[in-house]
User: Fold this.
Amino acid sequence: MDTDFFITVLIVGGLLLLSFLHLTNVTSVNRRANLLFGIFTFQWSTFWLDELLFAEYLNTTNAVFVIFRLFQFLVPISFILSVKFYTEPDTRLAWRHAWIAVAPVVFLVFLLSPESIKTESFELSAIMFFLGHSIFYTIWAHIKILKHQRIIKSIHSYTENIDLRWIKYITYSFIGSAIVVAAYNFLTKAEPLNIYINLFFVAVVYLVAFYSLRQKEIFPRGMELSDVVSGNTLIEKAQDAPKTKVVEDSELYILKERLLQLMENEQPYLNSELNLVKLAGQTGLSTHQLSYVINTAFGENFFNFINRYRVRKAKELLKNPAYDRFNILVIGYESGFNSKTSFNTTFKKMTDYTPSEYRRKRIQT
Assistant:
């Protein structure tokens, strides 16, 4: 069996299966985002599917070629839409988003142009347009993920399986794949992709499948995303910029003390899945009010506020000789962390030591 053909089948099969799983929303979370991601992965598969099914029509004016190339041109659009719905689930598409359709129409004109005007410079212009379109949306998606990773720290006390880090990895590989695949399709006269490049894509596809199917619901029920975004914006604004007061300063002090008492007496931070909605319910505040209190009175986001208490708890346990018989993972769980990775990362960031180093330092002294 031809090795390159076998690898191509693995890529197409993986993408089509992943597309089916997302289109049917097997994870039962992020429904609209998963639907669009399923469309994206199906479209992405056509970069290899055309070689398997319609190789004789490649680089011709045949309708099959035109449809496939237009379908491939739409890949970045379905990708950015899925990212938008993952990061902003309340999004409503409107006529103001119609500008997205301009580039595909222009590319369709390229595809349907008569052979008589398809000079070398004309073909080069089409390639650059294809690449520029792909890179523009990929960079946009990457920026949205970076912003999302800041926003979720105003909502959650953990980031595992909700920070969409796997999409950021896609943006890295997608820029490379957009350039490589487009270059091969437009410059190599339909020769199949190099076996080593296809091996790279096999790894990308199956890693994407692994992480995307572990994706959890990002925004908890009862959460108004606009409240979170506005609260997060308070942190990002310059210190001298005017801020809209959600509560008066006199009430802010009272709410701050109430929150401090709750954290000390009830220790809600020991719940590894604590989020803004749950803590707001315990304080009797709205999510908007609680976010404002944490951001303004403590000058930090929800993630850092909660994990500061967890690190303090972990330090207490690590200093206690009675807990020396327990490994670091147990200490992390007892302190409210939900994984060894998050425990080590957060503890190191806040103390400059890993938990193991902190324990050894205590034992040595």
In short: Confidence is low (pLDDT under 50) at residues 233-242. Residues 307-365 form a domain with the Arc Repressor Mutant, subunit A fold (CATH 1.10.10).
